[in-house]
Each structure stands twice: as structure tokens, then as C-alpha cells.
Design brief:
The chain is of the alpha+beta class. The chain is 31% helix and 30% strand. The chain contains three helices and eight strands. Strands 1, 2, 3, 4, 5, 6, 7 and 8 form an eight-stranded antiparallel sheet that branches. A hairpin with a 3-residue loop joins β3 (45-53) and β4 (57-63). α1 packs across α3. The model has no long low-confidence stretch (mean pLDDT 84).
Length: 164
């Protein structure tokens, strides 16, 4: 079995390149090292893409509210009504995460087996996280002028001991 960091590291590199070079939002690493944690803490807007095939895990892209709003502004050529923003921010995050993972796949060690992408779905701060609370998660975090950006890799093939 591969160490979870071998899956998240190339995706973190591409995440930073994507936001800095493709989108135009400067990101600074917030944590120098990857942190393994049994706790999954989401920011204001989050999306999950589960993977199958060579990888039994999923990636969550989670951002602060101001970052989500800025991303939507950069994605959209028209003004989005306040009541519709949440849905469209989720779509912008899903598209971003799909691009980031897709452009990282060739860097993830898979022993020749294909990586299968499942459809993305949005997460609220509590939804679906209960399903993963005993899975091992590795995260990397960045800071921007618009708040935090967090990438979490959940390894479904491992679990952590339940807290006492």
C-alpha cells in the first residue's frame, strides 16, 4: 500500500499552480508539512471527488467564504444573484478540483492501474463527514488574500483508532 502523502503531494503542487497561474490568485503554503489527522474540518465551501481503481480515497477541496466568492467572480462573466451564489460556488469548486486532480493523475503512482473519477458533490460543514471520521486524512493548506484553501485526501483503505 502506498503512503497517503504520495497521493496528495502531486495534487497540492498542481492546486497551487492552478490557482496562481491559471486563475490568478496567489497562494502561500500555510502548513510546511502534510498533516495526517483523524479529524476532517471543512471551511465555508467544500466539494468531494471520490476516486476508484488504483486509489481507494477521495479529495476534498475546501475554501473560506471570501475565496469562494472571488473564485465565482473569476469564473463568471455575469453577476450572480446572492441567493444563487452557493450553488454556483460549489460548481466552480467542483470544476476546479476536477481539473486539479485530472492534471495530477500522471504524477500519482498507480502501478499501471487506472484512476476512476466519480462525480463530485458538495459538502456542508457536517454532511457526509460522519462517514469518514475514522478514515485517515492527510491535508495541505494554503493562505490567500481571500482566506484559506484546504486540500484533504481521505484514504478509505485505512482507519484510525477511535477516540476514547
Amino acid at each position: 500500500m502506498q503512503e497517503p502523502s504520495c497521493y496528495i503531494e502531486p495534487v497540492l503542487v498542481r492546486l497551487r499552480e492552478y490557482f496562481v497561474k491559471d486563475i490568478g490568485i496567489e497562494l502561500r503554503p500555510r502548513e510546511a508539512e502534510l498533516v495526517g489527522t483523524p479529524h476532517i474540518e471543512l471551511l465555508s465551501y467544500s466539494v468531494l471527488i471520490n476516486l476508484g481503481g488504483a486509489i481507494r480515497g477521495g479529495f476534498i477541496l475546501s475554501v473560506d467564504k471570501e475565496f469562494g466568492i472571488k473564485l465565482l467572480e473569476l469564473f463568471s462573466e455575469v453577476e450572480i444573484a446572492l441567493e444563487d451564489r452557493h450553488e454556483f460556488i460549489g460548481e466552480a469548486l467542483a470544476e476546479s478540483l476536477n481539473i486539479i486532480i485530472g492534471n495530477s493523475c500522471h504524477l500519482i503512482p498507480t502501478d499501471g492501474e487506472k484512476i476512476v473519477f466519480l462525480p463530485p458533490f458538495g459538502l456542508s460543514k457536517t454532511s457526509a463527514i460522519e462517514n469518514y471520521k475514522h478514515a485517515y486524512a492527510t491535508k495541505g493548506e494554503f493562505e490567500s488574500a481571500y482566506g484559506k484553501v484546504r486540500l484533504i485526501y481521505i484514504d478509505y483503505s485505512t482507519t484510525v483508532a477511535k477516540e476514547q
